[in-house]
Design goal:
heterodimer; A: alpha/beta; 10-stranded mixed sheet; 3-stranded mixed sheet; 13 strands; 25% strand; B: alpha/beta; 8-stranded mixed sheet; 11 strands; globular
């Protein structure tokens, strides 16, 4: 079974040379720590920076240079700053190659819910609806089940949707799954996790095609 | 040159009234018009609608207006960091319209650029699209969203000149340039007000035609919401 860093490490393998990547808040943010350093990748933060770097050294933080999680960051050589409308032109116009974000629920048809739990405090969707409605390549990073132990990979989402039919891949603590017309296709198992365990934790249709390899990190 | 300078924040906010709709730049606490917000608190204008990506924190930014219950309605994309906001929202005192962040930016830009509405894929198939016209283009579905209408836009820029030309710094730029000229009156506060000619015309982010009033902010706290650092080896 993977921890959050393990999920991020596995997703980092999906990041290819020459990609512009938008990372959501939470596990997706960790992906940047695991991207191979022999490839060229630029991270976009939707509040207006492309070429985002690591956190600043202590004492060098700047209130005018933050990421979408409002954390102080740095800008790498070759970075650019821009306004919000331009930022979402990059996203809506499909100039960003890969979007990685968290979710509360994903359905077997690619629907995603990650912004609202009715009756509880609603924090808002931020840029998530723009991202999922526009990107061709959307990877969800999340735990396979919620704190109550219920599956987050469902036949249909029960929570208000963020986007419809948009998720391409899901990486959880248990598995890597591809969203296909027939349902969640099991691509890889996390180390030490059996197909049976994944099946039990998946409410949506799970497609098992032959021997499912254990993932390599 | 058409001069846009006003003496101070008081002169800049002339004409502000109860019940108006304001746009406010900023993302989190970065690039917020600190001096205009402080003066809105002082003026105690009530029943206002604020179009702003976020709602500040309890004791800073728009949180200051929330504390005094001056805001009737917030139009935002993300509002998570504010207990007083949550209390007013759950008790029904505060009306909240949550919209996708890119749609928020584009509704500003549409108002700035004279488009009454535009189609966006964001929110299609979700409750954001409820009651709105949807249309298919090239096999994909889009939602019709309208330009904002606002009385004042309160903008924070880094440097500006007397003609109202502006430059922004870092990610404090965010919604600020998109809101310039998107309201009936655009009021800009800058960290540094300079003479015409001091800013390179090649490096202007927003030309002065989009600005009605500009003043130098008295002081800037520039509070950091999430201070994240790394240590040197």
């Amino acid at each position: 079974m993977l921890d959050k860093n393990g999920i991020a490490q596995r997703i980092a393998k999906e990041v290819k040379d020459g990609y512009y990547v938008n990372l959501g808040i939470g596990i997706p943010t960790l992906v940047a720590n695991f991207v191979r350093d022999d490839i060229d990748v630029e991270f976009q933060s939707e509040n207006g920076v492309l070429g985002m770097g690591p956190f600043p050294f202590d004492g060098e933080e700047d209130a005018d240079v933050i990421n979408a999680g409002k954390q102080t960051i740095t800008a790498l050589p070759g970075a650019s700053f821009f306004d919000s409308a331009t930022s979402f032109s990059m996203i809506r116009g499909q100039h960003v190659d890969l979007t990685i974000l968290g979710a509360m629920e994903v359905a077997e048809n690619g629907d995603i819910a990650n912004w609202k739990i009715p009756g509880k405090m609603v924090k808002g969707m931020g840029g998530a609806m723009d991202l999922v409605a526009s990107a061709d390549n959307i990877i969800v990073a999340m735990m396979h089940t919620n704190r109550a132990g219920d599956s987050k990979l469902l036949k249909r989402c029960s929570l208000p949707l963020t986007g419809v039919g948009c998720v391409t891949k899901v990486v959880t603590n248990l598995a890597v799954l591809e969203v296909t017309k027939e349902g969640f296709k099991l691509l890889e198992r996390a180390p030490g996790v059996s197909v049976d365990e994944i099946q039990k934790a998946t409410e949506g249709t799970l497609i098992i095609d032959g021997v499912v390899p254990e993932m390599k990190l | 040159m058409i001069k846009k300078t006003v003496k101070d924040v008081e002169a800049a906010l002339q004409g502000v009234q109860d019940g108006m709709t304001f746009m406010l730049g900023g993302f989190g606490l970065s690039g917020i018009p600190e001096n205009a917000i402080a003066h809105l608190v002082k003026l105690n204008v009530k029943d206002i609608t604020c179009i702003s990506n976020n709602a500040g924190v309890d004791d800073f930014g728009l949180g200051l207006l929330l504390q005094k219950k001056q805001i009737r309605k917030m139009v935002s994309s993300y509002v998570g960091e504010n207990d007083e906001f949550e209390r007013q929202m759950l008790s029904g005192e505060l009306e909240v319209e949550l919209i996708p962040q890119g749609t928020l930016a584009e509704r500003c830009r549409a108002a700035q650029g004279g488009f009454p509405a535009f189609f966006t894929p964001a929110g299609y198939g979700t409750e954001v699209a409820e009651g709105k016209e949807v249309r298919e283009f090239n096999g994909k579905m889009y939602v019709l969203e309208e330009a904002f209408k606002a009385d004042f836009a309160f903008i924070k820029a880094w440097k500006g000149d007397e003609a109202g030309n502006l430059t922004f710094k870092g990610t404090a730029r965010n919604f600020n340039p998109n809101m310039c000229g998107a309201a009936k009156v655009t009021v800009v506060e800058v960290e540094e007000l300079v003479k015409p000619g001091e800013l390179d015309p090649n490096q202007i982010h927003i030309p002065g035609i989009f600005v009605q009033r500009i003043f130098q902010g008295e002081r800037y706290e520039k509070r950091i919401e999430q201070r994240t650092v790394r240590q040197r080896d």
